[in-house]
Amino acid sequence: MRIDLHCHSTASDGTDTPAELVRNAAAAGLDVVALTDHDTTRGYAEAVAALPAGLTLVTGAELSCRIDGVSLHMLAYLFDPEEPTLLAERELVRDDRVPRARGMVAKLQELGVPVTWDQVARIAGDGSVGRPHVATALVELGVVPSVSDAFTLDWLADGGRAYVEKHETDPFEAIRLVKAAGGVTVFAHPGASKRGRTVPESAIVEMAAAGLDGIEVDHMDHDPDTRARLRGLAAELGLLTTGSSDYHGSRKTVALGEYTTDPEVYGEITRRATGAFPVPGAGGA
Length: 285
Ligand code: AMP
Ligand code: FE
Ligand code: FE
Ligand code: ZN
Fold this sequence. Notes:
By secondary structure, the chain is α/β, with parallel strands linked by helices. The chain has helices spanning 18-27, 44-49, 84-110, 117-124, 131-140, 171-180, 201-209, 224-237, 263-272; strands spanning 3-4, 32-35, 56-67, 70-77, 184-187, 214-218, 240-243, 279-280. Helix content is 36%, strand content 14%.
């Protein structure tokens, strides 16, 4: 069984539509794929409708959080997408992304970059708008050679010249809300230090005590030492460990299924979840 539990579509900052994502996941030989768009579940219906035989879809989202001024991402799986409190929090974060992206456009204009909100809005389409869309505009304008080159202090990195904060949820609140909606939480890429500051281990210890289910260990932004350290921490704290591509289509170089999750861990996630169930593609397992 090949299981990839972290993927983005055009519902946020990926470049595959939800339908393309599930087709590409099947073509990549995956048995299970999770759709985890930033702060939104709006890609679900299209993904379910296009789900190929033999591929199972895990519904989820990647929630934008912040603790002590440090941004982090919380993967949430198999929660009830209609549960009103969590839904309201997702909408709050997602909606605040619009004025925030406009703010980044304004800062870039002050820096002499001829980017416009119309350009960014066109790139984002109906997806939750984020820095990768602004970064794509910078690539189109020839300001930087690639999306990842826009994530520097000169441009869009945390604290960078054109960076603007957005509303982000307290991770303890996120854990509580997801659990109340029947879901399971996995702290995404907790050691991704090249993205900016990471949270201290003491915070992971506290999150585990507050009901965090797992941490993402096998991820392209973790070097071998970081993975070993996180695996040790998870064993100490009784946390599940996952591996995932964090696929973003052509906005990142990683391939679907490049990192995967152990079937036993996947089984445990599905046993814990009560808010939603994995959806088998027609004729699938
Ligand atoms: P936002 O949620 O708008 O703050 O943007 C965060 C997103 O930017 C992440 O989910 C990644 O998709 C992307 N990102 C963050 N750091 C980098 C990086 N160094 N290179 C490329 N993409 C990045
Ligand atoms: Fe992203
Ligand atoms: Fe993330
Ligand atoms: Zn992600």
